[in-house]
Structure formats: C-alpha cells, structure tokens
Amino acid sequence: MAIFHMSFSNISAGKGRSAIASAAYRSGEKLFDDKEGRHYFYARSVMPESFILTPKNAPSWASNREQLWNEVERKDRRANSRYAKEFNVALPVELSEDEQKELLTKYVQENFVDEGMVADVAIHRDHPDNPHAHVMLTNRPFNPDGTWGIKSKKQYILDDNGNKKYTGTSKYPKSRKILMVDWDKKEKIIEWRHNWAVSVNQVLEQKNIPDRISEKSFVEQGIADTPMQHEGINSKRHERKAFNQQVKNYRKSKAGYKNMQEKVVNRGHLDSLSKHFSFNEKKVVKELSHELKTYISLES
After folding, report:
1. Does residue 166 sit in helix, strand or coil?
2. What number of other Cβ atoms are within 10 A of residue 270's Cβ?
3. pTM for this one?
C-alpha cells in the first residue's frame, strides 16, 4: 500500500552538524572535510544510489559532492549558518526501482533544481519494504555568472520624506530583512508536500494502480481511521540500542579480562623478583609504593 511520508529539516552549524558528514552518511561515499582536515565515511551493507542535479547557472564543481559541500561550508562560516535543507521521502513500493528513480528525479528537478537549488540525492534500499530517499538542497542561490548569490539583503525603513527612521536614541536606523528566495517559507513546504502527492498519484494512475496518497492528515480528509506509521530510522532504534549495549558489554568484559591477565603476569614477575630481595630492599620497595600511592604486597 502506498503511503505518504515526507519530512523536512535543516542541516546547520548551530546544531553542531556538518554538511560534509551528512553528505557522506547519505551517499555512502568517503568525503574529505577541508575545514576539519579529516575524512568522513560510513560503511553500508547496501550502497545507496546517489546523484547530483544542478541548476543551469551552477558552476561545474557543484556536480562534485565533496567540493560542493566544502564550498558551502567555506561560504557560510557563521556559528549559526544553515548549510542545507534536507527532506526524507518514502518511495512507492508499487513501482519498480527504475520507476521510483524516474519519479523522484522529475519531482526534484521541477520543484527545487529549476528554482535554483543544487540537489544531492541518495536513494536507500536497505530494506525492500522501505525504499526512501534523502535529498540535501543548497540554501544559497547562484548568480548568473555561477558565483554564490546572497540569501537576503537589508532594506532601510524610510519616513515620508525618504529619510531613514530611528528608534528613540538608537544610532542604528530601522531596517527589515528581505529574502532573495522564498525557500524557507512555510508555504513552500506545504506546496512541495502537495506536489509530491500529485506526482506520485499521477504515476500510479498511469500504471493503473488503484492506490493514492495525500499530504493531508486523515482528519483533514474526513477519514475515520488510524494512519500507518512510516518505518524510518526510529523504527529500529530499540534494536540498535540493544546491539550497542551488547557491544559495549563485550568490550568492557574483554578489557577487564585483559587487565586481569596483565595483573596476574605482573604479580608473577613481582613474586619471582621479590625472592631475590633482601629484607632492607623489600622495605625500600614498600616505602616507595606508599609514596606512589600504589599498594605492592611483598609478603612471603
């Protein structure tokens, strides 16, 4: 049964996230972070199918995943910079893998790339019953010459005579922030979600598949039913937590065993050595151990 799942989020420096690490995790590629001087790589049992779509005025390096996200982080260096917008979307299981990719590519091209964003797409098929895609989108538009554009500009508020307005004794004139693109508006997310439902339903209809999806809740649709839960990453959280605890316990036990082995070996060496100590030498070692706050028993 086709289900609707599409969630949006921001990848930002303010939340301690990295665009390079995010792209490496989603694509399964090994990427070098110029700022941190290190590689990011996350091994996957099933390699994602990844590709990049670029707008017409984007430079050639925007098609290179590693260079793209390094350039994004190099341009947006503020502590609260938002590097990218991301959405996660469930792909209809009623379609073949090629049909899923064709549907997703067409949707991303028309809704984001044609608007000026670079789209870094990664399709995950770790579980046959849960095909989904992660799409990272650039937040900053490109100028016609391929250089980075601006996200917003400051506009001063003027009085009736065309002079800048001030508040009280402030030396700074009043101004407002003018967005150069509308990609961060709530209305756009509503529009994108609706367009995905329309795109999926059109393909399902063309394939004579009766199922349909909607971005609206069951309440909004007047349906008295319980919505299905999309099995995303959180569905396996308890299993991962249990597995991680097992690994942690194993490593702790192994480290404890190794430590005990070392103690036994060291004690054996010490016992062997102490046989050759005179009474005064044993006394010196005992006093030294107290100085080092280490208890050494040389009792025979």
Report:
1. strand
2. 13
3. 0.69
